[in-house]
Structures are given as C-alpha cells and as structure tokens.
Amino acid sequence: MSITSEPLDSTDFDALLTAVAGPVLIPADEGYTGELSGFNLAAIPAADVVVGATNAADVAAAVRYARSNGLRVSARATGHGSPIEGRGTVVVTTSRMTEISVDPVTRTARVGAGVRWRDVAAATAPHGLTGLVGSSSSVGVVGYTLGGGLSPLGRQFGYAADHVRSIELVTADGIVRTVDASAGSDLFWALLGGRDGFGIVTALEFELFDLPTVYGGGIFFAGSAAGDVLHAWREWAPSLPEEAGTSVAILRLPPDPNLPPPLQGQLAVHVRYTHTGDPATAAALLAPMRSAGPILLENIDVLPTAALDAVHMDPPGPMPSAERGCLLEGFPASAVDALLAVAGPQVVSPLAIVEIRLLGGRLRSPQRVPNAVVGRDGAFSVIAIGVPAGPLGDQVGEHLVAVDNALATHSSGALLNFSGRTSAERDALWSADQRTRLETIRRRHDPTGVLRPADPTIVG
C-alpha cells in the first residue's frame, strides 16, 4: 500500500471551498440539483454539500471535511449507482475525473473515477484492445468493476474485477492510497466485489484483451412466442462453449420513433448473443435458435468490440427505474413456466425488461487474485426492471416481487450490481465468513462510519 497525501482536518466550509478545485455546492446554490442528478430519474438524492471533484486531492478534502463535521460521505460517478441520500451527508461527484492512459505493450489501462466504458473503448480500439465492458458502455468503469463487472464476454474472461491491477482511493481518514494484490491488501480484496463502504475510489488500473472484433447482436422474436423461445433458449444456452455468451429478455418496448419500426410499442423476446471466435462457427452455433419463433428483427454480424452496445441495445439515456435480481441454480421448464405466469405476454405489466443471462465458464472459475465478488456458483442471472411512472407505475414493486417469488425455488443469492436490494438484504449475498471479513475491514479502516455503504442499484 502506498500513501500519496497527508490528512489535514478542518471544519471550516471556507477552507473546503479553497481546497477543492471543482465546484462546492449547497442546496441553495444554482447547479446543486444538476450536480446530483443521475441515470435513475426515480431517485431524488440530497446532501448538505456536493463536491464536484476534479482529482484525488479534491476527494480527500471532501472526506476530511465530512469527518470533521460528523457527516457521512459517498460518491457518485456516472449516476448509475445510488449515493447516500438525505441531510447529514456530503456527496462527491467524480464525473470530471476522466483521465485515461492506455499502455498497448503491457495491455493495461488506468482510468479516473468518472470514466465511462465508452471512453475506454475509444481509447483502446485503435490498439485492437478491449476491457471487459458490460452490456452498456454508458456505465461508469469504477462502480461496475467494484461490483464485480459482468460483461457479455465474461464467460471467456471472467468478471472485470478479476483483472484489476491496482486501485487508487481515498480512505475514511482522508488519505489518498494505492492498493494492489502484491501487497496482499485487505482493502484490495474487499473493494473488488464488496464495493461500498471501504473508500472512495479515484482511479483503477486493469488488464486489457486483444479482441478487436466479436460476432454478436440479437434476434427479436414476437412476444406471442415467448414460451417457445424461452424453452428453446434454456435447452440451447448451456450447450455453448466459453467463447459464447447469451441472454434472453422479455421486453415491453415503448412506441418510441427512435426504435426500429418493427419494435415500436411491441412486446418482444430478445435473444442476445456474442462469440469471440470464427464467425462461421459462431453462426452455426446460433442457428438452432433462429427457428424458435416468428422473427421481428435480427441484427447479428461481426462487430468492432467497441460497438458491443449493439448486442443488448440498452436505453442510452436517463430514465426512472426500479429493479430486482437473483441468481438461478438452473433454469428448468418449471422455472420458465413460473416466470411466464407473472411476466409473460398475457400479463399487463409495468416491467420494461425481464432478462435471464447465462453465466458459467470463467465466471465460475477461481480468480487468480482472490476478491469478494459474489455469485460464482450461479448458472443464470435474472434481472427485472420496471418504470415507476405512467398508468402502471405504482405497481412496479409488486411485479418485481412476483418475479422474485416465481423463481424462489430455483434461486440463490444475486449479483451485487444486479441485485437491486437494500443494504440489509445485500449482506446476505456473501457467506457468513465473507460478511465477517468485510465488516472487520470496514471497521478497521472506517471506525466512525464516515463511509456508510449505499444501497446498490444496477450498474452494468
């Protein structure tokens, strides 16, 4: 572990203004609301002070101010995650920390806390390299990676957290530190998978992969064929090799003119697919799924890895949402039928998406450097997302619970980034021994609770 700053305590707000290069805002200030706004428009965050950090020193000053004034502190990067909300808090926004350096020789990248995956793709693609980006490149690198980081390429390469080289962070004492695996750091273990409550991460260094293109995209089937498609997918997906990844999603699409005409206002079943090997082999593996039902639209081809967003086609802009996820030990016919009963085409539902994603492969393998990522035993990951707005907005919660209950006999735990659970529920994601170790590390580095863990939302 290395230390690159010394603490300087001050309860003086004017001193904070002087110490921070970026904006420092209170609720009465113009720009306060915009600084706090995030991807999930259903969240209404609030804080006593918002610090727009431009570097690690700004973050350290904010933490020292919070500690000296008996306040709690958390960070917001790209806004997909949820910071501590309410009075008595300082929120540090790190969206201005967008430095990126790529070393094509060592195949590594170092990024600031505000960097999104699309920024990494722009910097690495000219070298034919890629990081383990998730289904949406608008997601921030840091929060996604610390929560595990599930990529469409994960079955071949593992979780993004498995490939982190070093972490720069500000701990609860207001000191900038760098931790890595070589020092056997307890913070390094806990941050990678435990994510919240150990420090505010200001930069990551991680491995890149030589993968300029992938074969991928998706097939949109008519929603009326949901049963046939899901049953076909559950039999087909587990037979795929590690270099292939797939998910299937029930989508309730809005009448958005930006969508392709066959999809506007439709209920569709979307089979997503990636393969990192020979395109002819990849196409042959996918062929059995093409006859699963009537096809509304297909967009599968060889893609630049930087264009991986085209596989899942996640919404690019902010929207109100609520979500709930779980892991499945298997996806038998009874689980498909139970899911269709609460989220299939015959149900009037506010759930915009119910996705089942194939896990396994290197996602299950022991990692080279141990970390706290949960879910390695899961065979499938499920995430349901609803929009708490419009005529059915007030029913989102009960529909999320219905999906969870329908799959309960087949489920065990959840991925942290996909759990959508409160901090109390989240603790159950780790084993008893892991929980004890995580809590011991938190108390050692933050005995007064300056960095209270935030309730997680989807970040990947």
Automatic annotation (TrEMBL):
Its cofactor is FAD. This is FAD-linked oxidase. SUPFAM superfamilies: FAD-binding/transporter-associated domain-like. It holds the Pfam family FAD_binding_4. Belongs to the oxygen-dependent FAD-linked oxidoreductase family. InterPro entries: FAD-bd_PCMH, FAD-bd_PCMH-like_sf, FAD-bd_PCMH_sub1, FAD-bd_PCMH_sub2, FAD-linked_Oxidoreductase, Oxid_FAD_bind_N. Keywords: FAD, Flavoprotein, Oxidoreductase. Gene3D superfamilies: 3.30.465.10, 3.40.462.20, Uridine Diphospho-n-acetylenolpyruvylglucosamine Reductase, domain 2. The keyword Flavoprotein applies. Residues 43-211 form the FAD-binding PCMH-type domain. GO terms for molecular function: FAD binding; oxidoreductase activity. The keyword Oxidoreductase applies.
